[in-house]
Design a protein that fits this description.
This is Substrate-binding domain-containing protein. The chain has two domains: 152 residues, D-Maltodextrin-Binding Protein, domain 2, CATH 3.40.190.10; 117 residues, Periplasmic binding protein-like II (D-Maltodextrin-Binding Protein, domain 2, 3-Layer(aba) Sandwich), CATH 3.40.190. With 277 residues, it is of the alpha/beta class. It is globular and about 50 Å long. It is 44% helix and 25% strand.
């Protein structure tokens, strides 16, 4: 009897380990931006993918720079990010199989509705030039995210290579880098009646606006493209390439693109699919 019990227990344990291993194989880690997570997109998108694939996607929401670093270390199976130049460099270095366009929205500059720095308009560079001497608080994410990278490009175009520098020429900028996600940065801007660059998706889902309003929008330079990258198994053989590729293929498929387009807040569409199939 003892032998039978031990045999049955061993058989059940083996089944349990097999089921557990299978369950682990059906889950992947995706490193992505805080904007896709905090906007609520993934809460809408990922259940739809799981329903058709059986694959669970576990999101680690970081700035794009940090997400790319996760990919370089092999700590993620797939990336969903928005800094095209950095993404193309990542693929060129051999860390990703390919970069595929998924969707876009835009950046907007928000600030107090009274706009004491007088930046309201469509020109982001002109707006930052005014902010540089207005002594109005500017809240930067300062986290190497896609939004932070875009912001630094705009400051450079405005003639300021390092807005955080405390040189005499730049001393008037009240520049505050929080090293945080988009939601927390907007909370700080709201509490200080400051200015901030944000992606529109996070802005539309953000509730604690206080006196903040969109002041600069419509500049073609504010275009914000998102891409998906599967980690290269030649660099990191332990990553779950097949499952990650299944997600990348689905999110650019007609079904995935339709799911992205269907996500709205208050009747407003947050992201616009533009995959090239």
């Amino acid at each position: 009897m003892g032998f039978v019990v031990k045999t049955v227990c061993g058989f059940l344990l083996a089944i349990g380990l097999s089921v557990s291993g299978h369950a682990q194989e059906r889950a992947i880690v995706m490193a992505s931006t805080t904007s896709t997570e905090q906007s609520g997109l993934f809460a809408h998108l990922l259940p739809a993918f799981k329903q058709v694939s059986g694959i669970e996607v576990r999101v680690v929401a970081l700035g794009t720079g940090q997400a790319l670093d996760m990919g370089r270390r092999g700590d993620a199976d797939v990336l969903f990010v928005h800094d095209q130049a950095a993404e193309e460099k990542f693929v060129a270095e051999g860390y990703g199989l390919a970069r595929r366009a998924v969707m876009f929205n835009d950046f907007v500059l928000v600030g107090p509705a009274s706009d004491p720095a007088d930046v309201r308009g469509q020109d982001i560079v002109a707006a930052l030039k005014k902010l540089a001497t207005a002594k109005a608080p500017f809240i930067s994410r300062g986290d190497k995210s896609g939004t932070h990278a875009a912001e630094l490009r705009f400051w450079k175009a405005a003639g300021i290579d390092d807005p955080a520098a405390k040189t005499d020429a730049q001393r008037l900028i009240d520049y505050r880098a929080c090293g945080c996600g988009m939601g927390p940065a907007l909370n700080i801007a709201s509490s200080l009646d400051g200015y901030a660059l944000t992606d529109r998706g996070t802005w539309l889902s953000f509730k604690n606006r206080g006196n903040l309003a969109v002041l600069v929008e419509g500049d073609k330079r504010l275009f914000n493209q998102y891409g998906v990258i599967v980690i290269n198994p030649a660099k990191h053989p332990h990553t779950k390439t097949a499952q990650a590729q299944a997600f990348a293929d689905w999110v650019v498929s007609p079904q995935g693109q339709a799911s992205i387009a269907a996500y709205k807040i208050g009747g407003e569409q947050l992201f616009f699919p533009n995959a090239k199939n």
